Amino acid sequence: MRTIAIIGASLAGLRSAQALRQQGFDGRLVVVGDEIHLPYDRPPLSKDFLLGKVEAVPLADQEDLDALAADWRLGVQATGLLSAREVALSDGTTVEADGFVIATGGVPRTIPNTHVLRTLDDAIKLRDAFGAAQHVGVIGAGFIGAEIASSARALGKDVTVVEALPTPLTRVLGAEMGTACGHLHGDHGSTLITGVNVDSVNVDAGINTRINLADGRRVDADVVVAGIGTRPATGWLAGGPVKVDNGVVCDAGGVTNLKNVVAVGDVANCAGHRAEHWTSATEQAQIATRNLLAGETVATHTNGGYVWSDQYGVRIQFIGRATNDVRVEDGSIEDRKFVATYRDGDNPEDVVGIVAMSNARLFTRLRRNLK
């Protein structure tokens, strides 16, 4: 291959560029990103950035970026994969390449009259909105919603979190551990409302915002943030040669139905699974680029990605998969400091997942035994 184009300039895209150079690719490298910013770290946006403790955290310094010798096309969107060898861009140009890495990530699900937090520009708008606000409403009690709520409380705001499911984080951690994480909101003065949908969010006179719940209740807030998940950013691939179904369809090595096109990060539906985690994006980039250069799938990655979340001064860590058989191995939920393991239903002695709250040391030790 003489030219490889990476569509997406965030974590997965940057790590793919670095992996290609590390693996000996010395051809032309084009990186297309819809934001004007060079790659930055997203996790701090919902925490220290909102608190004003840090500004944007670069994922690589200028010297490292220069070493990639890449052609950065920033502030430009991919509008279509015209063929297996050409992509169209929003500025009217096209890029021809022998291989493509699709790393376009996800797009936040939105509710009218609310903020979202996905990009640096989103974070800047939200931080500015927090300035004069007293009451912050958060829709969604997943990791991102909980982190935003935590930051708002740290800034002295009154916080109400609305979650449609009966228990926060059930889809990731299961009901018991999700309940344990949900307790953190009440512990630190936030109000958590669960098991009710949001009908709408209204703005009165452009100032006061009201969350209208399906059961008739209303939550008044100065600022409302929706943290209700993302959808894969695949709209630009519609009608093109790459198969799309809940993301870019690829095998466990990130290879699509076109051998010269791979997918990594939040947009990749690898063997029926999308891993929307920071660590997964890094791991997938190493594997997928290796397969791209080989022209076939010579390596695969697992789906047991590691995820962490900092909420109200507590670090929550999770790896693997959640099951109904969950056992607290150390500490206690009541103390908000514990490690629990998830066991395989057919083989109860096998640990298939681990979750920890404020116990990083034991978590690290136990994860070595993960099946």
UniProtKB/TrEMBL annotation:
Entry's Gene Ontology molecular function annotations: oxidoreductase activity, acting on NAD(P)H
Gene3D superfamilies: 3.30.390.30, FAD/NAD(P)-binding domain
InterPro entries: FAD-oxidoreductase/Apoptosis, FAD/NAD-bd_sf, FAD/NAD-binding_dom, FAD/NAD-linked_Rdtase_dimer_sf, Reductase_C
Keyword Cell membrane attached: no
Domain (Reductase C-terminal): residue spans on this chain: 306-368
Pfam families xref list: Pyr_redox_2, Reductase_C
Known cofactor(s): FAD
Keyword line: FAD, Flavoprotein, Oxidoreductase
GO cellular component: cytoplasm
Keyword Ribosomal protein: no
Span of domain FAD/NAD(P)-binding: 3-285
Protein known as: FAD-dependent oxidoreductase
Naturally occurring in which organism (per UniProt): Lentzea alba
